[in-house]
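Changelog note: in this version the structure field was regenerated for every chain. One regenerated record is shown below for reference.
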Amino acid sequence: MFLFRLIGLLLITLALMALGADALQSLEAGAIKIRSLAEIWGLVHQHSLDAFTGWVAATVPAASGPLTTVIGYPAWAVLGVIGIVLAALIRLTRRG
């Protein structure tokens, strides 16, 4: 339980960091600039992004389209939603 709570808080922290980076980039550019999860993942390690999307397309072709859509969303939104859902699920299981 502790590990999942820690992962949830880490994802929420990463989401806030991505939101802050987008805000700073927007201020520097003078226009709204929002990076997608795919862009950030590509900056960190492009080969793993390509390998993962290729693996999903090969093993579960029906999930390839939705995966492309989800990683095209803003990074702070994807990471934040996953982190909040994970933290909420852990909290609910602790109550029960």
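Spot check on this record: Residues 2-29 form the longest helix (28 residues). The mean pLDDT is 94.
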